[in-house]
User: Which sequence fits this backbone?
């Protein structure tokens, strides 16, 4: 209760001193212009289908921003005022930071952006997501987490040409908790998600993840760069399903070895169906295997856990302690048996 009161007080202070937003009527919909330090949450709350929320390039905005569930039939786009200078279809890099607007995480380790149950139709273009302090942060963007029914899962999100990173002075567990449906993450850059004695990832999804595409990103992650599974969903309908991962670079910096950060693998499946992992470049996993395809009923409450219909093809893997680790069924808790795994046309070097 005390924590909630502090957060409410903090939000009230931010709102009271925020410069006003400006609404511009356009042929394709409204443009809600939010100046640096402005009330982004108010813009999200008042946005309608097709609206653009324009944030000032170089400006900073305080999270946690809650994406609310409302009757949207088209995307609300949250973009930098200089997003047009980021070429479409091209992966961004940290050097393009001046073109981005920054959303910082909330206080007490809260996310920069969090989707409410059932929230849908939000797009981010040209946004930097970063922690606000060195305090432990569980994730910069939380798209679902505790839903118990598929119909409550957040859905229809697009993250395009965005920059997610941690701080060297703190610990951020992951870039995106990808527990949403019909979501695309593309052309983006994930940096620095690693620490000692912690299961950290660039992107991870474990419940409700469905019809997801991860395309043409650069992704760093300590324990796993990308992970599906790792915590028990409420029921079999929420098993991560229909996932495409293609054209990405998965990498671990050499400095992590010197810092003795926790390193396990580059791509891991513990509970997933219908996954295609193709045409990616994976490098520098000096400890453990490049791939872990291991069925896990992680917490013992999901005996329906499985891995089914997975293709790993056309990838280049450089510098891993091992190639592929496969476990057909959980050796700790009851689970289903792995079915229909295809591994072909991959090149393993060093």
Assistant:
């Amino acid at each position: 209760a005390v924590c909630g009161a502090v957060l409410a007080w903090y939000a009230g202070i931010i709102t009271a001193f925020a410069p006003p937003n400006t609404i511009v009527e356009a042929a394709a919909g409204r443009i809600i212009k939010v100046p640096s330090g402005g009330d982004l949450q108010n813009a999200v709350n008042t946005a309608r289908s097709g609206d653009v929320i324009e944030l000032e390039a170089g400006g900073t905005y305080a999270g946690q921003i809650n994406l609310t569930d409302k009757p949207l039939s088209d995307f609300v786009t949250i973009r930098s005022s200089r997003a047009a200078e980021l070429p479409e279809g091209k992966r961004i890099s940290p050097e393009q930071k001046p073109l981005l607007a920054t959303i910082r995480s909330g206080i007490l380790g809260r996310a920069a952006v969090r989707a409410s149950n059932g929230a849908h139709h939000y797009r981010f273009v040209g946004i930097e997501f970063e922690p606000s302090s060195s305090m432990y942060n569980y994730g910069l963007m939380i798209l679902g987490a505790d839903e118990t029914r598929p119909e409550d899962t957040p859905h229809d999100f697009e993250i395009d040409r965005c920059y997610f990173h941690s701080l060297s002075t703190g610990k951020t567990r992951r870039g995106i908790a990808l527990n949403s449906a019909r979501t695309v993450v593309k052309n983006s850059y994930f940096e620095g998600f690693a620490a000692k004695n912690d299961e950290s990832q660039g992107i991870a999804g474990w419940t409700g993840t469905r019809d997801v595409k991860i395309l043409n990103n650069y992704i760093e992650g300590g324990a796993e760069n990308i992970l599906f599974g790792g915590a028990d969903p409420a029921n079999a309908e929420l098993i991560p399903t229909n996932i495409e991962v293609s054209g990405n670079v998965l990498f671990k910096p050499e400095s992590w070895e010197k810092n003795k950060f926790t390193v396990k693998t580059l791509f891991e499946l513990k509970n997933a169906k219908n996954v295609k992992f193709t045409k990616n470049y994976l490098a520098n996993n000096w400890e453990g295997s490049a791939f872990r395809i291991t069925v896990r009923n992680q917490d013992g409450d999901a005996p329906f856990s499985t891995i089914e219909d997975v293709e790993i093809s056309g990838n280049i893997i450089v510098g891993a302690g091992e190639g592929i680790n496969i476990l057909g069924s959980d050796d700790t808790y009851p689970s289903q048996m792995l079915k229909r795994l295809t591994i072909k046309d991959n090149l393993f070097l060093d």
